[in-house]
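tl;dr need the bound structure. longer version: we got a ligand (S-adenosylmethionine) that a collaborator sent over and nobodys looked at where it sits. i said id run it. heres the input, straight from their email, havent touched it
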Amino acid sequence: MRDYEPYYTEDGSIGLYSYADKDVFHSKYGALTEAWEKFVIPSELESINKKEIKVLDICYGIGYNTKALMSFFIEKNKIRKKNLIEKFFIKLLHIVSKHTYKIFKIKKLLSYSIDSLDDNKKLLIDCLEINEELVNLSPFFKTIKTPQEYYSYFVPEIFNSFDSYYKLRDLFVNIASRYSPKNRQEIKDLLNLKFQKMHIDKEYKIHPFVNYYLINALYELYGENFPDENIKENLIKGKNRRFFDKSLIKYALFNQKYGYNKSSKYDLSTFLHNIYYDYLSRRYKKIDFRATQELIKLNFYINDARKSILALDKEYDCIFLDAFTYNKAPQLWSVEFIAELYKRISPTGLLLTYSNSVQIRNTLLENKFYVGKIYNKKLNKFIGTVASKDKSKIKYPLSTYEIGLCNTKAGIPYHDPNLSFDKKDILELREYEFKHSDLMSSSRYIKIRGNNNG
Ligand SMILES: C[S@@+](CC[C@H](N)C(=O)[O-])C[C@H]1O[C@@H](n2cnc3c(N)ncnc32)[C@H](O)[C@@H]1O
């Protein structure tokens, strides 16, 4: 039996279920959409006026939050700008690349193009994850071509050539029901369902460079061991093919075979190799890709986040906390762990999490954070929690009713002295405190104050 079960979430991106953790990694609603709506958009990174923006992604998993953030960063920085000068260099590059003896010129031109992007901000992301296999697999997970995407891109085009969507749907139903006449209605329902599920927004996609960039970052980290045999085996298994991106697998294998640090002579032939034609075929893409690499730095820390955090001494502008729910992974929601985050967040930084729990909000309050809610305009509801040392950064603060709720028994936080308790001990410690607490129960509080969710 495999350790994880992949599934399509409603936006077409792939989610994972972990048998060991008995939990899903991504919400049914949409792994990619969630990354954008709960982490990237509320992070407001575009308003940070620093030369280098530092982000901490706790519980990297298969990297949706980091990938979405990189996409956002690439688009915002307009790395893909194609001005006339650049076009001229590309043309030149195209000509000289045919002559090996002019390699030094190509390099000069490439570095010129990168230098011209010096005005852009840089982005550093420290990614913490306990499971190495997930990190290594993360770039390969398909984030663009999913069945839903095929529907949303190609089907409307076909529809245009027919008069209406319904004509085509009925045509499908007729053809299908010829083979299975009894199931006509079911086929119709199934098609209706498929056509409705097209709601991933264009801007929520992942930039095509991101996964290549991740592969290169991991390749630098692991050298020849990436992708190792286990991962390779996993990636090329026939039944996994619809979840893993075939072209990225080829790219990684190619990188591994020919080495990342090629001699300059080899560089050129690599440059012109078929595989590059597949993905980074046009020269400007190659230039942009390199420029992106100059601007984004990724570090992976593969260990229990409680240990990794102690070794980090940076000040982060933004922290993503995407651990499993608090009763499944109490280690990453304790007062003591959050205190370590408090020490490492900048005076105006934001800590973001999908959790709306009273207990988690109280843990943040106990650490002297200002706490608020993440508002989603499209859904017109609160979809997570945001915390900061700076009160003015909190757009939707907790109401007095919600703060009152945090002071009930439901808000009693987890403790993990020395950041070394195991899950069972942390849960038991809280259980004990809960039983012996004089605080009002949340149900009584709600009864007295009414169910006013502020
Ligand atoms: C909800 S999933 C995160 C999903 C992820 N953000 C993504 O985009 O795919 C939780 C992740 O936490 C990791 N994890 C669990 N306990 C951890 C720990 N103590 N330290 C670091 N990571 C941990 C799991 O391996 C899992 O990948």
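gonna send this back to them w/ a short note. Residues 147-202 form one domain.
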